[in-house]
Amino acid sequence: MEKEKEQLLVGEEVATRPQPRAVRRRAAIWALGATALLMLFLHGTIKRAALGCFQHRKINGGILSSQGLMEAESAEVCTTPACVHAASELLYNLSPEYKDLDACTNFEELVCGGWKERHDLRPDQGDAFTGTIMSENSQLLLRHILEASYPKDSSHSEFSPVRLLATEASADEDNFKKLQDGYNACLDEATIKEAGTKPLEEILSKIRELYKVDEPCPSGEDIAKTVLYLSELGVTALVTAGTGADDKDPDKVVVSVSAPWRIGLPSKERYEDDDLLNGYEGTIGRIFQHMHLTNQPIPRKVIQLEQKLAAACPDQEDMFDVTNQLPKDTSADNVINMTPDYLKKLAGILEETDRDVLLGYFYWKTIQAYGPYIEADVLKPLKEWNNFLAGKDKDAEEDRWRTCVDHVDGGLGWILSRFFIEKAFSEKAKNFGDQIVSDIKTEFIEKLKKTEWMEKEVQDLGIDKVHNIVQKIGYPTKSPDIMNPTKLAKYYSDVSVSPKTFFANAVTMARSEITKSWAAYGKPVDRNEWGMTVPTVNAYYNPPGNEIVFPAGIMQFPVFDVNVPEYLSYGAFGSVSGHELSHAFDSTGRHYDQTGNYTDWWTEHTVREFEKRADCFVEQYHNYTIDGPDGKPLHVNGKLTLGENIADAGGVSAAFSAWKKRAAEKKNQNLPGLEHFTQEQLFFVNYANWWCGASRKETAVNRIYTDPHAPKWARVLGTMANSREFKEAFSCKVKEPVCELW
User: Fold this and answer.
1) Would residue 545 be called left, alpha or beta, if left means φ above 0 and alpha means ψ between -120 and 50 degrees?
2) Where are any strands of DSSP class E within 98-167?
3) Which H helix or E strand runs over 59?
4) What is the residue range of the signal peptide feature (predicted)?
5) pLDDT band at 74 (very low <50, low <70, confident <90, very high)
6) Is it true that the peptide bond before 480 is cis, omega within 30 degrees of 0?
7) Does domain 198-373 fall into CATH 1.10.1380.10?
8) What is the CATH number of domain 1-136+426-479+532-742?
9) Most confident of 6-15, 66-75, 154-163, 610-619
10) For labeling, which of 141, 180, 238, 652 is most exposed (least CB within 10 Å)?
11) Number of other residues whose CB lies within 10 A of the CB of residue 661
């Protein structure tokens, strides 16, 4: 339950990977390096001459004053390898016509035109963006770690194995072997193919034992046993259940029950597409027939059952609306019913469903969950169907090593995190990240003080809330302490891994996670836990914990770099930080006080003023559209994406203010080859660079229905339209934001 309410920076697409382009980038860096040295030599002559010739210079639709030009020219040019690399990255992604485009109306194309020209989606990708490339760069590093021997002689960083005591070094090596065994088992496709569907059939056989079609059970006890068995394997059927902090008592762990977040198709709206349903039926039918599971009419009836379940589920925007999730009269004995209407309807649906249909449904949920761990021709229709839903090539397959890195990250993620940190993070980076986040908190407090529509008592409580926000940077040092090999070994002591049993490894990993979750029930909330492993390129705000969390995975180039001018890191990572902090005051986060308790701490007047401004964001983003499945415009759901859009606007504003204060204390250097832009403008260029991306139509449609984040391009255009600082930096004619909260 707690993770479901976490306010993420991006959706699940951050796990996708990028295309290598080292050769082209290396050539660009070399060429730019020579240019940078020449510019440095000529800096004191040509630039001063240009200054004498022009009093004003046109900058992307606006005018840069002579004073602004003088300030830009007076800064030194950074020609270190890190700066040359950063400059080449931005230039590489800019539109070739960036000098002629109007930033005030077409900023996404200006910043990302080159990115789109040079990044085709691979056959196995539904979409990709800059975060995807970061994730895949990390994945490549992890591959190198996993395919090498234990780094016992490494002295790369303060986290290196050579710094461990003898007892800890032994545990560290054992942990690495477990990690490597899990990875190698996944790579061993020959053994996986030899096993065929037998591991999956064993689970299906257990389902038949628990839910006997020929022995009706009016009490529904056998349904409960079957659902419980599947949940222990990580398979969601009929309901979702889990543990997490009680919203109204955030130090207490409770059980929550709700409708599934996904029934079978990507969203409930897709069950209205008859052509899609025909293809879905064919997929289930072929698999059931080849696996000799049940008679032929069952697949259509299974889909009809899913249609009923989908119709009973809340709309997606309501699933994300905490005010709808927490009715006052549905808690009993530390169990919270998050979707009472759905559970009432579910009882009626089950009463009118034949037992053989329900058995077929249980089969199908299991196949959907565990089919990807099987290599057999009978399950090829499942791969083809999943590819079709995402708009990918029919037979597209991800590189096996990518799948296997994901596999160990999902099941042994904290061990993998320990070795990732050793190669990709430093104390210097952690300290810089802490500085940025602390600066953002300071600036947000200043914004709250100036927010006239907030009454004073709410302002004071809000300031208190910001002071109390816990910032977690880089990696966890408790629950578990990933730098303590002995504690890591204990954390994964219940995970048995063999280099020859891929499917069994997946099952034991899933069971371990579920066991840990349920073991927390009845205990105080562990506020030291993290909801993301360290290599993850994402971040989140957790309302009951009142915490913002930034794994080291997102603190990488080009979003974050300690060795480049600060306006780049503040523009991208700083805006990420501000985004997560802003979630504490968005349409969801505002309901939680400084201790993480769900309560009404805003006055009626302040709520009315907030909702008036929030409605502006709903309408603004609703006007953005993509091509729908029927060729007609499909509007962004302004209500579903409201919290994220508010967070984007608040994050950029707080980050810009924080950077300006730092820059006033210590002047930033310029980047070579980017003299067309001021430092203020480059702040926004690097912000938008983070969202450069591309998507297949089918994937984009699915995200409109399910993702609380607007499309990447809309996040650039909408956020810039709402940024007074952006409009001033680019001298736009209209300085007033379209929508504004903070």
Assistant:
1) alpha
2) 127-129
3) strand 57-59
4) none
5) low
6) yes
7) yes
8) 3.40.390.10
9) 610-619
10) 141
11) 13
- The two structure tokens encoding residue 48: 């001063």
CA nearest 494: which of 512, 481, 515?
Answer: 512
For tokens 């009715």, the residue is 327
Which residues share a beta bridge with 85?
none
Weakest mean pLDDT among 157-166, 429-438, 490-499: 157-166
**Maximal C-alpha separation, the chain:** 93
Would you list the DSSP string of 271-332? Answer: GG-HHHHHHHHHHHHHHHHHTT-S-TTHHHHHHHHHHHHHHHSPPHHHHT-HHHH--TT-EE
Q: Is the confidence at residue 580, as pLDDT, over 80?
A: yes
Q: Which residues have CB under 8 Å from 29's CB, separation 6+?
A: 81, 84, 85, 88
User: What is the model's pLDDT at position 39?
Assistant: 35
CA distance 326 to 598: 9
pLDDT (tens digit, 9 = 90+) per residue, 515-524?
Answer: 999 999 989 9
- Using an 8 Å Cβ cutoff, are 400 and 436 in contact? no
Overall average pLDDT of the 41-45 stretch: 32
Token match 């002995």: residue?
486
Q: Quickly count helices (H) and strands (E) in the chain.
A: 32, 14
pLDDT for 531-551, tens place per residue? 999 999 999 999 999 999 999
Q: How far apart are CA 551 and CA 538, in angstroms?
A: 7
Helices 198-210 and 355-370: angle between axes, nearest 10 degrees:
150
State the DSSP H helix or E strand holding residue 635, giving kind and residue range, or none if neither.
Answer: strand 633-635
Whether omega for the bond prior to residue 558 falls within 30 degrees of 0, making it cis, is yes
Helix, strand or coil for residue 266?
coil
From residue 353, alpha-carbon distances to 213, 308, 347, 357 in Å are: 12, 10, 10, 7
Is residue 73 within 8 A of residue 47, CB to CB? The reply is: yes
Residues facing residue 257 across a β-bridge: 241, 337
Q: DSSP letters of 496-544?
A: ---TT-HHHHHHHHHHHHHHHHHHTTTSB--TT--SS-TT-S--EEETT
Q: CB under 8 Å to 242, separation ≥6 — which residues?
A: 1, 255, 256, 517
Rounded-to-10 torsion of CA 345, 346, 352, 357: 150
Cα four-point dihedral sign 497, 500, 504, 509: positive
Instruction: Please choose, from the candidates 25, 103, 19, the residue with its C-alpha nearest in 3D space to the C-alpha of residue 59.
Output: 103
Question: Using CA atoms in the order 325, 326, 330, 333, what is the torsion angle rounded to 10 degrees?
Answer: 110
- When pLDDT is cut at 50, 70 and 90, the band that residue 22 belongs to is very low
706: phi then psi, degrees, rounded to nearest 5: -120, -25
pLDDT of residue 487: 95
**Does residue 305 register a pLDDT over 80?**
yes
Domain spans in the chain, listed from the N-terminal domain onward: 1-136+426-479+532-742, 198-373
| CA 558/CA 574 separation, integer angstroms | 12
Are 387 and 394 in contact by the 8 Å Cβ rule? The answer is yes
Strands 547-551 and 470-474, by their bridges, are parallel
Q: What is the mean pLDDT of residues 139-149?
A: 97
* DSSP-assigned beta bridge partners for residue 506: none
Listed residue (489, 462, 487) closest to 477, CA to CA: 487
List, for residues 687-725, the tens digit of each pLDDT value: 999 999 999 999 999 999 999 999 999 999 999 999 999
Distance of CA 421 to the CA centre of its chain: 19
Eight-class DSSP state of 670: B
The answer for 340, left when phi > 0, alpha when psi is -120 to 50, beta otherwise, is: alpha
- Specify the range with the lowest mean pLDDT, choosing from 141-155, 337-351, 564-578: 141-155
Structure tokens at 691: 């969202």
Characterize the bridge pairing of strands 249-258 and 335-337: parallel
Three-state DSSP state, 346: helix
What is the token pair recorded at 702?
């699915």
